[in-house]
């Protein structure tokens, strides 16, 4: 079954949060993901691939705020099934998107108790493994974290260095920016935090 057909039939949800489908067994869901990945793996070996990732999490008291694998001191953290690292989730989705693979919510559904409280570097490392397996290396990555608070400027270099290490990439090809939302909408009202990322992958024989 092609990835397009799987999506059309509703096996995977449109968002990062996988729906609870009582009529599907865990085995059939797992088989669908394997089939989708296999279909993507047969795609032409393009010289360059570009992917975009986006994620948004609610902020709530009682949670740690983890961005790029770095603990950020704040009164609130991201409410999520895993550790809620909005940056690593976004970068993971960008890489998976560039490879035309299912997104993070499909590969690591929040309905699976195995991922409860999981560190997000697990997801990113799997995306990096898939990138390597399909014959690509990171060309460059540009990320924008959107948060009204806390101020992220003092943490950007640590975030960038840790993200580069997780990607096995030189920091010169990894960029991390931080913006406020001008006190507009849920992000500006400090109720959520968002992130965008764009990644370019280069075929190994061209790098």
TrEMBL record:
Enzyme class: lyase
Keyword hit for Transit peptide: yes
UniProt keyword terms in alphabetical order: Chloroplast, Isoprene biosynthesis, Lyase, Metal-binding, Plastid, Transit peptide
GO BP, sorted A to Z: terpenoid biosynthetic process
Any one annotated GO CC term: chloroplast
Domain 2-C-methyl-D-erythritol 2,4-cyclodiphosphate synthase: 49-201
CDD domains attached to this UniProt entry: MECDP_synthase
Primary residence: plastid
Cofactor: a divalent metal cation
Pathway linked to the protein: Isoprenoid biosynthesis; isopentenyl diphosphate biosynthesis via DXP pathway; isopentenyl diphosphate from 1-deoxy-D-xylulose 5-phosphate: step 4/6
Catalytic activity: 4-CDP-2-C-methyl-D-erythritol 2-phosphate = 2-C-methyl-D-erythritol 2,4-cyclic diphosphate + CMP
Compartment annotation: Plastid, Chloroplast
Domain of life (superkingdom): Eukaryota
GO molecular function, one term: 2-C-methyl-D-erythritol 2,4-cyclodiphosphate synthase activity
Annotated EC: 4.6.1.12
InterPro entries: MECDP_synthase (IPR003526), MECDP_synthase_CS (IPR020555), MECDP_synthase_sf (IPR036571)
Family classification: Belongs to the IspF family.
Entry-linked HAMAP family: IspF
UniProt protein name: 2-C-methyl-D-erythritol 2,4-cyclodiphosphate synthase
UniProt organism field: Pleodorina starrii
């Amino acid at each position: 079954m092609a990835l397009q057909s799987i999506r059309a039939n509703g096996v995977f949800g449109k968002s990062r949060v996988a729906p609870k489908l009582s009529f599907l067994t865990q085995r059939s869901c797992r088989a669908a993901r394997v089939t989708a990945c296999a279909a993507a793996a047969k795609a032409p070996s393009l010289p360059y691939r570009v992917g975009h990732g986006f994620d948004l999490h609610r902020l709530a008291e009682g949670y740690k705020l983890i961005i790029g694998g770095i603990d950020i001191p704040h009164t609130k953290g991201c409410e999520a099934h895993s550790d809620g690292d909005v940056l690593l989730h976004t970068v993971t989705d960008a890489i998976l998107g560039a490879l035309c693979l299912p997104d993070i919510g499909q590969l690591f559904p929040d309905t699976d108790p195995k991922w409860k409280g999981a560190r997000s570097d697990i997801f990113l490392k799997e995306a990096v493994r898939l990138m390597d397996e399909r014959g690509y290396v990171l060309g460059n990555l540009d990320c924008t974290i959107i948060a009204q608070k806390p101020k992220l400027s003092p943490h950007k270099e640590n975030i960038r260095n840790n993200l580069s290490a997780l990607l096995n990439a030189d920091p010169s090809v990894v960029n991390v920016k931080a913006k406020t939302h001008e006190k507009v909408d849920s992000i500006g009202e400090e109720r959520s935090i968002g992130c965008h990322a764009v990644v370019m992958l280069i075929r190994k024989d061209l790098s």
